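ESCALATION

Customer reports they have been waiting on this structure for their group meeting. Please prioritize. Original submission:
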Amino acid sequence: MNHNSQDIALLSAYMDGELNGDDTHHVERRLMDDAAFAKLFTQLQKDQQYIQQTLGAIEQTPIPQHLIDALSKPVEAEKQVTLFDYLQRAFQLHAMAAAAALVLAITVGVVMLRTGDASLDRIVAELESSPAVVQGLSTMVAGESIDTEFGIMTEVLAFRNKNRQVCKQVMLQHDQFVDVVFCHRGKSWLYSVASARDSVSEGFVPADGSGPTKIDTFIEKNIDGSVLSVRQERDALSELWQ
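Update from on-call: job pushed to the front of the queue and completed.
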C-alpha cells in the first residue's frame, strides 16, 4: 500500500506533538492496526534522526561556497533569497520531508558518500525504469516527497545544467541511502551521477576541497545559474510537456 503526502504530513505532526487528543488517538490506533503505516512511521523517525545529526554537523562544518552562491542569488522579481530564507521556506513546504531535503541540499558537500558499488548501478537502473519514479520526477518540486516501491523519494533541489536541461537531485532510502541526480533528456529522465551510504550515521568530512562528493562536484561543474525556485521549477516542468 502506497502512502500519500497526507500520511507523511499526519505522522510528521504527530511526531512534533502538534495533534489534538482525538487525532493523536487516531494515529496511534492506525499504528497498531496498519503495519504499512507503522513502517512509514519508523522510516520517518530515522529521517528525523538524520536531520538532527546533519544539523549538528552544520554547526561545525563550512557550507560549500557554490551552494551559498546559488541559494543567495536574486531570482527574477522575487526578493533576494538568503540561505536562511531558503531553509525557512523549505520547512514550510513539507514538514518532515522538506526538512530532510533542504538540510541535505545545504550539506551535500560535507556528507561522505560511498560510490562505485555494483549494487548502486542496479538500484539506479531500477529507478530509471520505475513508472512511479518517472512520474514523480515529472511532477514533484523541491521539498516534496512521494512513496515509491523503493521507499520514500524526496526531491532535494532542481537546477538547469549547461545544456539548459532540467536536473533534479533526489534522496531515497533503499537498502542503502541513495542520492541521485537525474536530468531530463528528450522525453526521459536519465541519471547523471549517484552516490550511496550504508546509514545515516556515516561520518562527515570537511567541505574545504579535501573530500568533495561526486554529487557536489557534478552540481558545481554543471549548474547554469542558480538553484531553481519552486515557481521556476513548476514553470520548467510545464514547458517539458507542452
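Sent to customer with the following note: The CA atoms of residues 76 and 232 lie 9 Å apart.
Escalation resolved.
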